Amino acid sequence: MERRLVSEQIDDHPGWGAGSGDTERYEYLCPCGNGRIIEEHDNIPGFRDHQVFIHCAECDKKYTLDTSKGIRNWKIVEK
Fold it and tell me: How far apart are CA 42 and CA 44, in angstroms?
């Protein structure tokens, strides 16, 4: 399924003593159009975290996210 980006936010972060970094948040329209698929990245040395999730009750029942090629290369697939 095609990704449709609806919101993007990248913020600098001073870090927690190991150096500065940034945080990223991307919101994509979910397949039904009523919710979002949210992709977040914390690129801060010592506190790196990456996640993607479906924020739509309807689509969460029908789809799952395939992250086998990495969080940034996720694909939505039918369950």
Answer: 6
